[in-house]
Amino acid sequence: MKIKHIEHIGIAVRSLESAIKLYESKLGLKCYAIEEVPDQKVRTAFFMAGQTKIELLESTDPEGPIGKFLEKKGEGVHHIAFATEGLQENLDELSQKGIRLIDNNPRKGAEGLNIAFLHPRDTMGVLTELCEKPE
Amino acid sequence: MKIKHIEHIGIAVRSLESAIKLYESKLGLKCYAIEEVPDQKVRTAFFMAGQTKIELLESTDPEGPIGKFLEKKGEGVHHIAFATEGLQENLDELSQKGIRLIDNNPRKGAEGLNIAFLHPRDTMGVLTELCEKPE
Question: Shortest CB distance from A6 goes to which of B2, B6, B126?
Fold first, then answer.
């Protein structure tokens, strides 16, 4: 498989409002979209830093994945997403090479991308997402 | 301040050798440098993913920052570094805006960059580094 660039970094935050304030008024980045992803039980805010998006993730349900992450680990980096092409082929290749997959097949993520997660136990503790633009 | 792009993502790993194997033979990235930073008590391996480097960090001393991080949190993302210009001015500006600094003045980091860390308590739990190329 070939990684093109880092598509985004997902950061779990307790308050999207406070986090947007930090990124805009202190770090000087501009929030260009806020999107709710009911499937993932999150509200997200997006910023561009060069090629890479910063995706702030606020939980909308304590039982959702970000709610549980915040409860267990507190605020911080939740996942890294790589931009690739041929997502299904990449997943099949990684699986054959012994990487456990959270998603065996691509599904829809934020911003209409096809996405899939790899298991952090096989990626040095880093929850890793692969993304591709739909055709 | 202005963030140009994400300079690198620092990932704490227990074994640089195993982690390099994952990134090269499974994720398809190429390690282009291995560097020991005695000051930080780490050995690092670098990969390019588009504009952004992945910096794998193996501790050389359990009492060093990565040794302590691994002990407390296990493997995972340790910090995010933003590429900027005018590092000292940025630090002064952030300090005035209430962000606590770990480094009040730039110091030398890996690959000869001038670097400084912000305190994660003021950056939503994300240990954040600012970098600039020396003139």
Answer: B6
